[in-house]
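> call design_seq(struct)
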């Protein structure tokens, strides 16, 4: 890899749009110093430098509820905007001081959600999955989300929440996407994903990370299927008139749901310690011994300083 300082210097010179994943990239739910407030604070530092921002995350309601309100006071004071691609880019909004402006949306109908759940239930029964078979961290996350359903009022419909509660933390259901906790055993994970893609892959995008997989609508560019996150990024670039030379992307899943945006941006970075980097080719692995999310924060701060 070329000298790290030289790479940062080149990146600083070209940067006009920061495209960034959220969980595992800007946010670490188990760290009080890398929480929503810390992530929002970093995004505000980028915006203050006059750099555009698009967050493209698997999150939907939880980002709108917990993070966007932390950004809006600055947007109001500075007449600025940033973008949020929710549910891995299934929809895209422009975040304004007092509102969210829809740019596009490929949310599912209630009937489509119901049909996906029927398929999931059949696969779950076939694999004989019980609550104890799923990754504990994922189950705990969704159990926490569902502990107080009233917190989602105005963000998620009562129907979706009631359906989620039937799955004991294994699913979290929104009309933009259905998030599934993966089984603990790799062999069972593979069988679950294979079956989901076999039954749903023609119409739905099925991608995730090492804890969750997310089911959302496929998006097409003309007649060709396009990665949902990449579609969100390209839409923002077109709106702003920015070329990929001026895009810098960060993501923690270079072999998962961040792969397309990390490969598309001329310069991109990952904090995935298992990623095998090709010589002098994005995404570049961020070196260092600190927490993987902290690496991203420090790298972005170096680029914009």
């Amino acid at each position: 890899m070329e000298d790290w300082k030289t790479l940062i210097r080149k990146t600083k010179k070209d940067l006009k749009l920061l495209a960034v994943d959220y969980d595992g990239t800007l946010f670490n739910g188990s760290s009080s110093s890398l929480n929503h407030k810390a992530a929002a604070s970093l995004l505000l530092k980028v915006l203050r430098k006059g750099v555009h921002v698009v967050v493209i995350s698997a999150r939907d309601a939880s980002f709108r509820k917990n993070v966007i309100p932390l950004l809006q006071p600055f947007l109001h004071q500075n007449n600025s905007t940033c973008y949020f691609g929710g549910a891995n880019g299934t929809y895209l909004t422009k975040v304004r001081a007092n509102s969210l402006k829809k740019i596009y949306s490929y949310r599912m109908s209630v009937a489509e959600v119901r049909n996906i759940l029927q398929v999931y239930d059949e696969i779950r029964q076939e694999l004989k999955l019980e609550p104890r078979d799923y990754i504990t961290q994922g189950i705990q996350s969704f159990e926490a989300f569902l502990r107080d359903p009233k917190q989602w009022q105005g963000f998620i419909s009562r129907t979706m929440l009631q359906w989620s509660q039937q799955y004991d933390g294994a699913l979290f259901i929104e009309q933009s996407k259905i998030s599934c906790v993966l089984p603990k055993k790799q062999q069972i994970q593979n069988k679950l994903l294979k079956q989901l893609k076999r039954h749903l892959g023609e119409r739905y995008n099925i991608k995730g990370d090492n804890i969750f997989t997310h089911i959302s609508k496929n998006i097409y560019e003309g007649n060709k299927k396009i990665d949902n996150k990449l579609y969100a990024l390209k839409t923002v670039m077109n709106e702003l008139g920015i070329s990929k030379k001026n895009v810098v992307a960060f993501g923690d899943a270079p072999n998962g749901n961040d792969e397309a945006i990390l490969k598309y941006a001329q310069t991109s970075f990952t904090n995935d310690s298992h990623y095998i980097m090709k010589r002098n080719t994005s995404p570049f692995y961020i070196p260092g011994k600190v927490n993987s999310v902290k690496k991203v924060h420090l790298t972005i701060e170096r680029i914009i300083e």
